[in-house]
Amino acid sequence: MSDSRQLAFHEVVRRRRSVRKFEPGKTVSREVLAGIVDCGRWAPSGANVQCFDFIVVEDAAMREAVTGVFMRQAQRLVDHARGFPAVKKSYLANTVAIIIVLGDPRWKVCFPQSTTDEYNAEYQDNNEAIFLCSLGAAIQNIQLGVTAEGLTSAWLSGGGEDQTNAELAELLGYPSWMKAYGTIPIGYPQATQHRRYRRPLDQCLHWNSYQPTQYRTHQQLDFYESTLRPFAMYRDAEDINDWPDKQTRLGDWQRAFTTSEANPEGQLQAEEDFSKPRVTGRSTRRRQ
Prior knowledge:
The chain is of the alpha+beta class. The chain has helices at 3-15, 30-41, 60-80, 120-148, 162-172, 201-204, 218-234, 246-250, 254-258, and strands spanning 52-57, 97-103, 152-153, 179-187.
């Protein structure tokens, strides 16, 4: 690959952003939308089963109906997932299209299957991972295709919830046992989006073996979920060192979130239960 093409690809990756402010009144051709979906078609998938289908919603009336489904989904988040920094979905009205990425679970039968009872659970779990990774690759490819066209998008995972998926299936006509694992609104950005927060590369890159000093502790995860998450999700700054209120937001955790040594003592921890939030911080007290 030439240096210029390599730089172009890396720039597309870095420019991809989850954007929720679109310019109203814009349109895009079906040719462009088909090219974006074709990027998803070329994604890798387990056993090459291509366990995805793509519904492009570009008709104005249908976009409005899909937007209504997600407005109701957003209200359920407010009512039943208190403390999560959810955003209203009204911005979907300004999209040029909404791509629904469907997962077809029938194709999991093509993945490795256990021939002994002892390994049933292991291969069932593995097949689910292969299935979800295949769908994630397709969704990411589509988002990169969107970026390459000078458009922008987001990834709404909420379509996979049972109630939301049931509404989408009835509206769009797909079998209810398929699931909308990815919903990708596409539009022209209302304003230039800067880079969102990313962990330092030398904090998440490990050479040849896992480095314990880069391990993020249970306490750091609790702090992120309860206190830092709303800011890390939506701040338009790649480097947390550029936050003007960094000291206030990070407190004693500055070193952990800004250097290559999140865990200078190098001590790993045993598994604990993280199925539910464990700490209430200043940003998530609404959970109560």
